Amino acid sequence: MFHWLLGDKQGLARIFQHFGQMLEDGRHTFDAACNTLVGGTDPDAVRDDLYATDRRINAVEQKIRRELVVHVAVSDRAEFPVCLKLMSLVKDAERIGDYAKNIFDLGVRVRDFHTDPARADLVQLKDRVSRLLAKMRNLHESQDEDQARAFCEQGEAVLRLCDERVDALVDGASDSTHPVTSALMYRYVKRVTAHAMNIVSSIFMPVDKLDYFDEDPETR
């Protein structure tokens, strides 16, 4: 969808670069936030950087939307679908930062999670999703449709895993000593993954199918 933007197309290439920075910042806030809960990082050591990065994400989102509105007003109609996609995708990128703040709040509130039996599983999950976010950034540059489809398959596996873990916590089948915190963490990581999948799926999905991964799999 975005291959032709890799050259300078009346300012859209610049907007595309701004969006890439949002993706980079989203992964940074996710890693920093998760480390406060499952990695033993002192929240005070990352608080200022995390919130400054989140403010930058929000500012870039607004900048992209302003530039898209101007671009649509002066461009030809052939570019309109691309602008629609980008307008939707910046919200997905912004939501990754929002969920990172939710995770950070858990790390601030629950300082002894390092003793929880669920921690090891969540560390593995965090590392898995962080690698996906790095791939998301790379796919934003390469626009490789085959790799994008493979990414979404990997993301689906993460969504299923998160659902399974939450079900176990709700059913009392988990040995977590902080079941509410664990359930929220799995839920937030699931949402981060779903937003990343929405972004990557734009490489091969038409405009009307955007936000596909925000839906219940049974209703797709």
Low-confidence stretches: 4-8
What is the name of the CATH class? Answer: Mainly Alpha
Order of helices and strands: HHHHHH
Number of helices: 6
Which architecture does the CATH hierarchy give at level 2?
Up-down Bundle
Q: CATH homologous superfamily name?
A: Phosphate transport system protein phou homolog 2, domain 2
Shape: globular
Backbone CA Rg: 18 Å
* CATH fold assignment: Methane Monooxygenase Hydroxylase, Chain G, domain 1
Largest sheet: none
What is the beta-strand fraction? Answer: under 5%
What's the total number of strands? 0
Number of domains: 1
Structural class: mainly alpha
Mean pLDDT over the full residue set: 89
Query: Which bin fits the share of residues in helices?
Result: over 70%
**Cα distance spanning the termini:** 22 Å
